[in-house]
Amino acid sequence: MREHRLQQISQRRVYHRVFMRALRALAVLFPLVLACGGQDVRQAPAIPPPDDRLASDILLVVAHPDDETAITGYLARAIFDEHRKLAVVYGTRGDAGGNAYGQEQAASLGAVRETEVRRALASFGVMNVWILGAPDTPGQDVLRSLETWRHGERLAEVVRLIRLTRPKVVMTWLPAYVAGENHDDHQAAAVIATEAFDLAGDPTAFPEQISPPRNRNDISNLTEGLHPWQAQKLYFFSDASHVDFMAGKGPVYPVDTLSPARGEPYYKLAAEEAAFHLTQFDTGKAAKEALDKGDFTEFKDPVRLILGKSHVKGNATGDVFEGVVSAAIPFHGVRGYQPVARTGMSIELGGPWEFYRDFVRAHNLDSLVDLLAPEVAVPAGQSLWIPILIHNDTDQPEDVDLETTLPGSWSNSQETIRYAVAPHATYPVQMRVKTPSAKSSDSREQQWKNLRWEARNKGQAIGRVDLRAILTSGGLPQ
């Protein structure tokens, strides 16, 4: 027994010595293990923030070099006195117009006008300028310009530039058919700017733009590494020949006050910027003459804006930056297109008028829903094409008689035409109206006239459309 017990004690002593040796070994190895582990955990590189050289307070989206002159009186105030950063996007190079300064035309004129606009904006300290290269498309039908511009491609580009410049405010032409210059490229720029305003904050819209690159330090990255961006306010301006419909819809900025920073009235600053556009008859040439003569009458109209939509607090007629916050705001979606239920037989204006009826509602532009009645301006002696839609929302084919009523010496080929409309179908009609010639038109013809089309089915009136029109002395928009 005694011998067995001595053997157990001896074994315990051996185990104890082994255990203590193991502890001492661990005490030596543990710091080494920690050190080795620390060397394996490397710090990941920091993600760079968005490029602040391109950040803007205002992004202006327009169609042609010199379009910015429509609101330069306000931009001078924002840039020089409020120290706002401006970036500008032009849809075209303006290469389809005439040249008030030299012989250059077409592509060469576009190159000249690009130089003019970059110098003009540089005089205001604006360097972030993009020209998308869409074709200059003279006319008045927005759908025509959206087609020639390749609508989807231009929309992707403007969404990209909103995400790149991260503006608080977007400004553009009014998306509406107005009597005035009413260039269809102006309208196309407005439509695309509005769509981009609503899409840039949506991560499912052009997602390749916001997907991080695989390795930003390597070449051949395809995804772009931008971030969704929701601008806070959208403003419109117009080249309409009348401004009554704009009253109370947005802020108005007089231009006959002095800029505190520059010591000159805003209208003179606007003329100095416009004077760079010497190839343009109604901006550069007019501005140079105003500066030479000291007569700025043409530049003294106040800048009138329409608040399209706002995602921050403020009044429609308040300052552009009223309620604007410095931090990014959440994405705000829109209701999108909602079909209008129809029954029986009906007619309505088609083309751009139909498009805008749906567009303003789809994009939550509630202030534009009843902005103005359908109108058009057309040069004397030219033809005017009026699109009309005849709807048959019944289960039977129907004949519809369309009767035209025109003023004075306005004319069309037939006063009444019959159309066979299939069940649950729409018949698109293009009515051609000839305006009075320039020689036969007098001062009475320069007033608003009403054009009317009445539709009858089986002798019963089913609807009518009215369009007010006015003659102009000039040609169509160039």
Kindly describe this structure:
The protein is an alpha/beta fold and 478 residues long. It is built from nine helices and 17 strands. It has helices at 2-40, 72-81, 106-122, 142-148, 151-165, 184-199, 266-274, 281-293, 351-362; strands spanning 58-62, 86-92, 129-134, 169-173, 233-237, 252-253, 303-304, 306-310, 344-349, 375-379, 383-393, 398-405, 411-412, 416-421, 425-434, 449-457, 460-472. It has a six-stranded mixed β-sheet, sandwiched between helices. Helix 2 crosses helix 7 (266-274) and helix 5 crosses helix 6. The longest helix has 39 residues, at 2-40. The radius of gyration is 33 Å and the shape is globular. The model has no long low-confidence stretch (mean pLDDT 91).
- In total, the number of strands is 17
First CA to last CA: what distance? 120 Å
Number of helices: 9
Spans where pLDDT lies below 50 across 5 or more residues:
none
How many whole angstroms does the radius of gyration measure?
A: 33 Å
